[in-house]
Amino acid sequence: MKWNISKQFDFCYGHRVWSQELNKEFALDDCLMCRHLHGHQGKIIVHLESETLVNGMVTDFKHLNWFKKFLDDTIDHKFIVDINDPLFPTLLPHYSSKNNLHKMEEDFMLADLSILKNEPLHIKELYESYIIVDFVPTSENISFWLLKIVQKKMSQIGIKVSHLEYFETPKSRSTVYA
Length: 178
Prior knowledge:
Blueprint: E1 3-15, H1 24-27, E2 38-50, H2 65-75, E3 78-82, H3 88-91, E4 101-104, E5 108-111, H4 121-128, E6 130-133, H5 139-154, E7 160-169, E8 172-177
Parallel strand pairs: 1-3, 3-6
Antiparallel strand pairs: 1-2, 2-7, 4-5, 7-8
């Protein structure tokens, strides 16, 4: 026997898919909308599985509360930008040399705000709104990034993540399997 449980999380974010290309025959036009700066109401469903139950459960759903906090504190209402995006120096001109970035354990970077100490508040707020990654922030890449984060944490208590579903919109999702 195998059991699978899941928990859903919602958050808002923005991104830009600078590498987007379309086949006009299938897309019916050549409008590269995802190359624009835009936002989404994202939804994630984390699936956990086990072949045995402990205390009648795969695990307690509360064992994913840390992930909700991570999403709320890190990604919600932030803009995910690829450090390799040709617009990176335009969006973050104080960091165009890609220095002064804090590398976080969860494989993303944040701007070092200490170099902005003499800047007005609205400039500091702009820079604190960026989540800097080293991948094009497509739904597939975001789902893989989040899967790795969940896998690493849940493995500490012996829980297997079977897959993660990531809804970029209510009608568009990617699924990545562990």
